[in-house]
Amino acid sequence: MSKAERTRQFIIEQTAPVFNKQGYAGTSLNDLTAATGLTKGAIYGNFENKEEVALAAFDYNLGLVQEGMRTGMLSGGTVREKLLAMPRFYRQHYPLLQQTGGCPILNAAVECDDAPPTALLQRVQDSLAKWHRNLVRLIEKGQQTGEIKPAADASRYANLFIALTEGGILVSKATGSSAALFASLEHIEHLIETELAL
């Protein structure tokens, strides 16, 4: 990496938890300089504006979650084990997610909820669509290999798994208790074991 690339990566890594905790609209340029120890000029010498930093920070935060989940799925030998890797990941890593501000998709989605369309909202929609596609492909692969019931509606279960996960995180974050998330994750595991797996 060049010096400019290292500086850019440093800015992203240092500001990512700030954006995730305080929100994208709620994070000021002063917050970015405080997090990095850099001047405004140094930040804007590497990024066109705050929105560009925010989008890079969202991508970084999301990448950490996706990489952790991917690692769990790759370690699973069967489709069932790969599906179970998702709830296991969130159960194991929820404390760390909370320390860094929670789920980046959920945080950005809530912030963009009633706002006009933005690049951040598009990132959220793209992330959810990719997550959905990956789950659908995995379930359909299991149907092809005879591990998943042929009649299972892959798209419906993918939506359900995502909604249970994100809804559980939202309630747990609001209440300060992991109970809602863990109940949601247990329900996902139950659905995989009883309604999907042969």
What attributes characterize this protein structure?
198 residues, mainly alpha, Tetracycline Repressor, domain 2
Task: State the gist of this model.
The chain is mainly alpha-helical and 198 residues long. Helices cover 79% and strands 0% of the residues.
Per DSSP, what share of the residues sits in E-state strands of 2 or more residues?
A: under 5%
Estimated radius of gyration: 19 Å
Give the beta-strand count. Answer: 0
What is the share of helical residues?
over 70%
Account of the protein in words:
This protein is mainly α and 198 residues long. It has one domain: Tetracycline Repressor, domain 2 (Orthogonal Bundle). It contains 9 helices and no strands. The longest helix has 27 residues, at 119-145. It starts with a helix and ends with a helix.
Per-chain topology:
Layout: H1 3-22, H2 29-36, H3 40-44, H4 50-75, H5 79-99, H6 104-112, H7 119-145, H8 154-175, H9 179-196
Helix pairs in contact: 1-2, 1-4, 4-5, 4-7, 5-7, 5-9, 6-7, 7-8, 8-9
